[in-house]
TrEMBL record:
A GO-annotated cellular component: nucleus
GO molecular function: RNA binding
PANTHER family for this protein: HETEROGENEOUS NUCLEAR RIBONUCLEOPROTEIN-RELATED (PTHR13976)
Protein family: Belongs to the ESRP family.
Primary localization: nucleus
Positions of transmembrane segments: none
The species this protein was found in: Cuculus canorus
Lineage, opening ranks: Eukaryota, Metazoa, Chordata, Craniata, Vertebrata
PROSITE patterns: RRM
UniProt-recorded name of the protein: Epithelial splicing regulatory protein 2
Amino acid sequence: SLVVLFGATAGAYGAKLGSDERELILLVWQVVDLQSKKVGTLHKSLVKADNLDLSDQCREVSGLTPEGLGKAEPLDRVLQQFSQLVSSDLKVLGRSSYTLCSDGQLLIRQVLQPETSKKNILLSDCFYSFYDLRKEFHTCYPSSAAVKDQNIKTMAEYLGLGTDETEEDFGVWQVKTMVAIIFSMLSEGCNYIFTEPETVKYKYETGPCLVFFSFLSSSKSETVDSETVIRARGLPWQSSDQDIARFFKGLNIAKGGVALCLNAQGRRNGEALVRFVDSEQRDLALERHKHHMGSRYIEVYKATGEEFLKIAGGTSNEVAQFLSKENQVIIRMRGLPFTATQEDVLGFLGPECPVTEGKEGLLFVKYPDGRPTGDAFVLFSCEEYAQNALKKHKEILGKRYIELFRSTAAEVQQVLNRYMSTPLIPTLPTPIIPVIPPPYTIATGSIRDCVRLRGLPYTAGIDDILEFMGDATGDIKPHGVHMVLNQQGRPSGDAFIQMKSADKAFLVAQKCHKKMMKDRYVEVFQCSGEEMNFVLMGGTLNRSGLSPPPCKLPCLSPPAYAAFQTAAVIPAEAALYQPQALLPATRTPQASAAAPPAVTYYPAQAAQLYMNYTAYYPSPPVSPTTVGYITAPPGAVAAAAATATHTPLLAQPGALVRMQGLPYNTGMKEILSFFQGYQYAPDDYNGLIQLSDQARSVLQAPKEWVCL
């Protein structure tokens, strides 16, 4: 038997059903006995949604009203009635089992499955298997239109069924027509048999990606179909692979197909790559762009198989053996003492959360030379044991507290790959040159010759801004366009533009205010150079006035961002890196009076447009600013060094090292003791870093003590 099912939501209808995350408001169904070609009673049930605000399309197509829906039953009660009425109709027809049949995939996969998951409603088994009438119809009639172009009306017209949609209530006509189509497929001329239903996975299968194992066992590099991979962005930091699978509930994710992305520090960055079983599932996933996970909306974009393999793939046999155990829950432990052994970890977890296969269920993360990193992964055979382990979060082992998190197979591979690729002896990167164009510094005066653009599309680039400005582009000062990025290095939606005069800035603000750029209107305000500089240095400018930046350092660190990954264009008159830029100068009362001009950088794209597409955000207080600078060619360093008047750069590469992770109470003596035995001459480099007299006298001690 088939149960022909039709539904509608409070929002989009047809091909966009479920794409706007609106709730179900209507279910219509009828039982069909395929052998006797008899039908049961046709049932129509309204569903009371939490939000009764109906879209215009819904009102027009369905004829339903919020008043009528307000008297209906909630979804959980309607689903109970559905099961009871279907069972009753089956008994009348002398049948006991059935399979759902719907018009396409959307009702089951994009509406019922995700909505019941969000509302914690348990669906019966019948909703995990169904026939897609469009696919079955195309199989029965190969000369009909493609599946993606089919709908109930086109299928009825192909068969010449004379049905009038206006004669029946909304939903009733659709179900009756679907039943008529099924009977035509069962007629003597076709004798069609429904054999292979669509399936929805009950749960996400954890474990390593199958491509990972085939990659290990084959000399040829395996590939992942790019038509099956998406990138989800904006995930909560604490979300796990199961949370992501729940967000995509109703869609079939490949085994081990959720790969959480990590940042340079090995922490989750709010992004994930998800691999689905086929391109059809991927296309449905893209329709969930900006659907919500809790209170956050999630962006969903296309990705490539190569990107997925970089995150989820690996080449370690040790990792493959660790992840080969099926249906295990993975927990990551961080902050372990370097001397911790397997026995110490098992004792820390205790008997209430036994590790799968004891020591075999532990994987310590190590550097290439075998030194421990303080990280480990643990396998548990069930959710209960994993929950018991997570309760030990921040408990003490030895003298350190241990952090415990849920993890994934892809994260295991990423962490191992990251540490195993770490060089044993880190080297200092190529010297860097900030470009300081003397004629074009950022204004700091009170003249209102600047404009602020607020509400820019996040995809907007410098071309878009120039087009937006129109004829006023000629009134922009050279190097006068400043894009503002947030602390994650992404566009903040703000930009500042320096105009040639206050009158020009006023005219631009009047002409372009609330003008559209792409699909958003942009606010344009006149402001002064001082106000602009405050915001570029990390302060805020709002109706309450100016709020100073959290720190005022003599240089700014542009974050790593895709727009700046090309080679830099370095003008010949570029100055060498100032000593004050390596370490912040000692703060004085006079220094806080006004923010100094920022160091500007010239990416290649900006130089071609004669605009300074600059990324600004302040460095951490009293911290070397070493993130994301533009690397200068060796020739540029040599040429600039020949004409420099201040202290020259380091005489040899690698002569300066930066120490991270020092205890807060570390003093000069502890650092000297740490480097005892290295023989280099600190005298040659004293002029590079601003040192107190006490520190300078220590560094001029016997040369076998320290290496600077």
